[in-house]
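Quick illustration, no need to memorize.
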Amino acid sequence: MKPALTSRDWFPKVAAATLPGAGLTLGVIGVLGCVSHGDVTPRDASGQFLMWLAALIWVVLLGTCFLFRSGRQAWLSLVAANIIVWSAYGLTRMLLS
């Protein structure tokens, strides 16, 4: 039987969603910006889309961080996701340059 989800480790979970979550959000936006050849100017439609998407991704991470079983699992999962996303960013920058 699975243990029930609790708010026992709420601070490490929120900290994991805040710190590595910010890096993960920026990495996803970077990959999408490279793939879509988005312009960096905030007045363009692609720039606006990426800015609003960043807010949405980070809010989703903050909202779902409590679904992890522990703070340690949240940190490990989000750091691993950061490594994957930033590796993908480096690869797309290398291939599209």
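The longest helix spans residues 10-35.
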